[in-house]
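Whiteboard transcription, Tuesday session. T.W. wrote the structure tokens on the left side:
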């Protein structure tokens, strides 16, 4: 087929994508170890270390995601929300057409890809927001750690004495209230994690299927930014 090289993905989007892949893989591995801490016989100190590591990678993940969302709002290319999300009139017709016609080619995401991106961005945002709350209530890390530590301190002047898994300077009633407050966030964090465990392999499978169909070099396109499309690609 007669093809031309078209620049599709900007540099910030490519950087976002691969930083995101590495961060999520690390977060999943560390998260799985935290989740199975009891079975693996991990001590309290070990847990604090794992959580500190998880939160450190989590900051990279959350900042990367935040920058991506900003690009979604102000970007001018295919990173823009208007071009990558499925929330516009006529989308369902486009989706049906995409599934019925195997020869459609898209410069940006295809309609199934748009659905997947929306679902993944939603779950990733839930992970980032709930993770930041958990980091504050669990190991008293920024941005909310100081606030939560103060909220449970017996002596506000000695708030630095409050440490993960320690009862020093902790008001037991207030601590219980804080644990109750964090419950829905841990539930959200775990369910969004399961959701991502389903969506990530589906996303990879979708890319493989689309590449076999379009043969436009989708994977290397996320490195070089270039897709190889038939001379007149349909949007
Ligand atoms: C895609 C991104 C992420 C994934 C897949 C993920 C996954 C997980 C998993 C599976 C757990 C274990 C849950 C449990 O112990 O019951 C966990 C715990 C935790 N995560 Fe994440 N996480 C992500 C992002 C973040 C971010 C951005 C932060 C904060 C900066 C964060 C902070 C925490 C904390 C503090 C815990 C410990 C909660 C606890 O067990 O008390 N996570 N995460």
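and on the right, the sequence the group agreed on:
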């Amino acid at each position: 087929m007669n093809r031309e090289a078209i620049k599709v993905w900007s540099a910030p989007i490519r950087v976002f994508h691969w930083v995101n892949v590495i961060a999520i893989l690390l977060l999943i591995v560390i998260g799985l170890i935290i989740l199975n801490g009891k079975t693996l016989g991990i001590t309290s100190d070990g847990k604090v270390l794992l959580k500190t590591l998880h939160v450190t990678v989590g900051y990279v993940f959350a900042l990367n995601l935040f920058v991506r969302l900003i690009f979604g709002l102000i970007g001018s290319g295919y990173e823009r929300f208007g071009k990558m999300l499925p929330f516009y009139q006529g989308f369902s017709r486009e989706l049906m057409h995409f599934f019925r016609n195997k020869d459609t080619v898209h410069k940006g995401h295809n309609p199934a890809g748009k659905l997947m991106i929306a679902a993944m961005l939603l779950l990733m945002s839930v992970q980032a927001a709930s993770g930041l709350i958990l980091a504050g209530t669990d190991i008293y890390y920024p941005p909310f750690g100081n606030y939560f530590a103060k909220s449970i301190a017996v002596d506000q002047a000695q708030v630095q004495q409050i440490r993960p898994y320690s009862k020093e300077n902790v008001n037991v009633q207030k601590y219980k209230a804080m644990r109750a407050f964090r419950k829905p966030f841990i539930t959200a964090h775990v369910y969004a994690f399961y959701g991502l465990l389903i969506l990530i392999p589906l996303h990879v499978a979708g890319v493989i299927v689309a590449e076999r169909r379009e043969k436009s070099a989708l994977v290397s396109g996320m490195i070089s930014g270039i897709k190889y499309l038939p001379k007149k690609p349909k949007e």
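Someone added at the bottom: Helices lie at 11-35, 44-74, 81-84, 91-100, 111-138, 145-152, 172-214, 218-224.
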